[in-house]
Amino acid sequence: MSELHAETASSRKRKSPSRLVPTSRRMLTAEVHRVQRLSESMVGITIGGPELEHFEYQGADQFFRFFFRRPGQDVLRMPTWGNDGWLAQYLLMAAPTRPHCRIYTARSFRPESNELDIEFVAHGDSSPASGWAVRAQPGDPVGIFDEGTTYNPPAVDGWQLLVGDESAMPAILSILEGSPADLRAQVFLEVPHAADIREITVPDGVDMHWLPRENDHAIPGRLALEALIEAQLPAENPSYAYLAGESGLATGARRFLVNERGMPKSDVKFQGYWKHGKASPG
Known about the structure:
By secondary structure, the chain is an alpha/beta fold. The protein folds into two domains: 4-148, Translation factors (Elongation Factor Tu (Ef-tu), domain 3, Beta Barrel), CATH 2.40.30.10; 160-274, Nucleotide-binding domain of ferredoxin-NADP reductase (FNR) module (Rossmann fold, 3-Layer(aba) Sandwich). Helices cover 17% and strands 31% of the residues. It is built from five helices and 14 strands. The strands form three sheets. Strands 6-5-9-3-4-8-7 form a seven-stranded antiparallel beta sheet. Strand 10, helix 3 (169-177) and strand 11 form a beta-alpha-beta unit. Helix 4 (222-230) packs parallel to helix 5 (247-260). The longest helix has 14 residues, at 247-260. The protein is globular and about 55 Å long.
C-alpha cells in the first residue's frame, strides 16, 4: 500500500490539507460487472477486476479519472504512465484511439470482491458519459486513475455545510454515510425529480434538505444556491463548508459564504464538476 500525502494551497493558510492523494498512483483496468437503474435520473454501475486490489479506498468524496471507449472503438487504449505523467501521454494519443476521460466519485468499494460502485446522472446522449452509462453492458472495459479526496474538515467543534446538485450526490451521500454519529450539518441537495430522493440514514444532528427541480429546462444548481441564500442558517458560521456540482452553484455558494457571511476562504471547499452549456474536454 502506498502512503498518502497532502496537497495544500500555498497561497492561503489551511487548518487541514486540501487534498489527500496516494504518493504512488497508476492506471487500473476493470470491466463492468452490473448495471442498475437507481432512480429516474441516476444509473449505478459496478466495475471490478483483479487490478482493483490496488485501489486504495479512502471513502468520503474520493474521486478518480474514469476511462471508457468512444463510440466505434473496439479496444480501450489506456495511458500507461502513473502519477502526474498520464495527462501528457493521454493528450498525445491519436484522436481515433484516445478514450473518453471523465471524473467520477467512488460511491462504495468492496475490497473482498474488488468491486467499485459508481453513479452516473442519466440524461440520454447529451454527454458522452451519460450515453455510455445508459448502454453499458457487463464485460465492457473501463479504466480508473485515483485522484484522492478533497473533503477533509479540520478537527474542530462546529457544524458543517454540504451543498450540491445531482452530480455531487454520490460524494455527499458517501460523506454522510461515513460520518461520525455526532456530526452536525446542514445539507442542501438538489436533484432533478422527487423520484431521485434517496432513503438515507443520517446522524440526528444532520438536517437534510432535498430540493427537486421538477423542471427539465432549469439550470442545475440554481435551486440549491437560492435555497442556501434564503435559508435560516445558524448565526455562527460553519466550521467547514463543502460545495460541489455545477460551476455556478459551487462558485456562487462560496461567494455568498465568504462575502455575505464573512466565512474564511480556508474553511470553504468548492468544486465545479461541470459548467452548464459547456462540454468537458476529453
